[in-house]
Amino acid sequence: MIFELLLFGLLTGFVSGFFGVGGGMLLVPMLLMAGFIMKEAIAISVMQMVFSSIFGSFLNSKKQSGVLVDGVLIGIGGFLGGLNSGFIVSSLSNETLQYFFIIILIASILKIFSTPAVHDRKEKNHSKLLLIFVGIIIGTIAMSIGVGGSIMLTPILVAFMNYDLKKATTLGLFFVIFSSTAGFISLSYHGHMLYTQGLTVGIASLIGVYFGIKIKHMINITSYKKYVLFLYIGTLFIMIYKTI
């Protein structure tokens, strides 16, 4: 199983860096296919996110400026929301969590598909409280289903706050630092964390993150949107297959 976990880490890390996500939307289905139950998959996924999001955000900061303030505000909200995840995971069944994950995927696909990758309008200035509130809601939901939050945050930033898609995904990965750290604390406190497996996947993911970010900045934004949709739709089919 160690070889499989290392491979999962490499693939998840690449996806995390390229798409600006925590990687849980890919890692959770792969772990389910490998025989882990939903709650175990969530625990491993959350620990992996701590590794990939910190390293990925460090690499992104060298290539893209102007995201730090908004990222911190949304991240603070994500941290507060993520602290609730252990309680939610303990309260809901594996099947309920899987169906909830599928609903989130469908909503995100529809929103990204209907929204242009680049806006003609100027980016809005948003209140600090609004950004924190958005972070709290997303952090609570995301950490409870084992994803970093970008899967929900990116459509909101693009569709309602006028960020371009690449900047939104950069912010999304930054957000994952806070939400995944809170999720790790909460899941550990409630006795759900699998430390050995999570560490194995997390360390392997660092290599994937490096190459994912490198390739991301070489692709034009229109093509990038197509890749994002492809990832979301592929993950949706895997989750439906595993759940039904």
Describe the structure in your own words.
- The structure is a single chain.
- This protein is mostly helical and 244 residues long.
- 80% of the residues lie in helices and 0% in strands.
- It contains 11 helices and no strands.
- It has helices spanning 2-19, 24-33, 38-63, 68-82, 85-91, 94-114, 128-144, 150-160, 165-189, 195-216, 221-243.
- Helix 2 (24-33) packs parallel to helix 11 (221-243).
Unreliable stretches, pLDDT < 50, 5 or more residues?
A: none
Overall mean pLDDT stands at 84
- Level of helix content? over 70%
Determine the N-to-C terminus distance.
25 Å
- Largest pleated sheet: none
Q: Total strand count, please?
A: 0
Strand content: under 5%
Tally of helical runs: 11
Would you tell me the structural class of the helices and strands? mainly alpha
Order of helices and strands: HHHHHHHHHHH
Dominant shape:
globular
The radius of gyration over CA amounts to 16 Å
